[in-house]
Structure formats: structure tokens, C-alpha cells
Amino acid sequence: MKTQTSNVKENATEELLAPGGIGMAVAVDWGLTVQTVLTPVFALFSHSNQANMMKMAGPNSPIGNILFFVVALLAACVFAWFGEMVRSGRNWARIIQIVVSVLLSLAGIVGLINLYQSIAVGNFWPIVAEIILVIISPLIVWRMTRPSTARWFKLVTPVEARKRHGGKWVWFIILCSIIGGVLQAIAAMR
User: Fold this and answer.
1) Which of 30, 88, 166, 171 is the most buried (most CB within 10 A)?
2) Which residues cross the membrane (predicted)?
């Protein structure tokens, strides 16, 4: 009887329509992790930006550098953990992801004004952020608000979600996160 019940539940989960937007959401979250880890490293080696980013403890201050690294690593851990919660099918994480993605989309629309000004002076790096904010964030919102995705998040267990979003899927998302995070870290320093 117990085996029949678990088989019925497994079949019900498999019959659910595939969720959407999880890969993009996790790639953005983990990309923020990469960007957040790299920002203090890039700031340390970028003399023009270092003084601006480290002013709270004085320019070139070892305490300021250490504090910046510690805060960046803590923030990076939060982004990595949150991406894992989305990957694990936590419905509360889906809701937060939707809200944050809406806010990022709005910030991207506002940022289009700065994009034009940057391109006019020959700085094309802000295009990286605008692609994420104006294209990817709205796609995340749209795909994660679909009824099939909401239903999947409500019914799936973390074990089933990680099983579905594991293996090659994780490695592909990590690769996308590294590429996006590195590009965004460079773009933020320009």
C-alpha cells in the first residue's frame, strides 16, 4: 500500500507540466554570487575604483579592504543560498524571486537613460546589465508566474526538485552564472 501511494505521488509530480524560469532565475542568483565575489578582487586591482569603493575606512586601508571582502563574501553566500532555494523548489523563494525580478526590470527600464549616455561616450559595458535587467528579469517574472510553474513549486518536494534540476543542468547553470557574473563584475567596474 505504501509503495502504491509513493508511486502515485511520483507519477503525479512527473505529470505536472514542466516549471519555467528556474534555470534563468538560478543563473541570475548564482551570477550575482560570482559578481559579488569578484567585485572586491577587481576593486583591489583597479586603482581608479579602489579609492571610491574603500572610502569608508580610508583609501588603501587594509581594514577597509578586509571589511569589503568580508561583506562581499557574506552577500555572495546569501545569493548562492537563495539560488539553491529556487532550485530546490521552495515556493517562498519563487515569490521573492518574482518580486525582486520585477524590481530589477523596473531598474533596467530606468537604466536605459544611462545606457544611452554611456554609449554616446563610447562605454558599451552597461549593455551587459541592461540585457539582464530588461530582457532576462522580465522573462523570469513571466515564466515563474505561469500557473504550471506555481503548481509545480507547490507540489514538488526539495528532493524531487533537486533531482530534476541536477546533473548536467547544474553544470550548465554554473557555466552561465560564471560567464554572466564575470561580465557583470567587469561592467560594474567600468
Assistant:
1) 30
2) 21-43, 63-83, 95-117, 123-142, 169-189
Phi/psi-derived region of residue 122, left when phi > 0, alpha when psi is between -120 and 50, beta in every other case = left
Cell numbers at 5, concatenated: 501511494
Asked whether residue 78 is assigned to any structural domain, the reply reads yes
For the chain, what is the radius of gyration of the CA atoms?
20
Q: What is the pLDDT of residues 120-151, one digit of tens each?
A: 999 999 999 999 999 999 999 999 999 999 99
- DSSP alpha helices (H): ranges in the chain? 2-15, 22-45, 47-53, 62-87, 91-120, 126-130, 137-144, 147-155, 158-164, 168-189
Domain coverage including residue 43: 21-189
**Sign of the Cα pseudo-torsion (25, 31, 79, 35, in order):** negative
Cβ-contact 171, 30 below 8 angstroms: no
Does 7 reside within a domain? no
Q: Give domain status of residue 3, yes or no.
A: no
pTM: 0.82
Q: How far is CA 104 from the centre of its chain?
A: 11
Q: What is the DSSP letter of 52?
A: H
Task: Look at residue 81 in the predicted model and tell me its pLDDT.
Answer: 98
Per the CB < 8 A criterion, the answer to whether 128 and 183 are in contact is yes
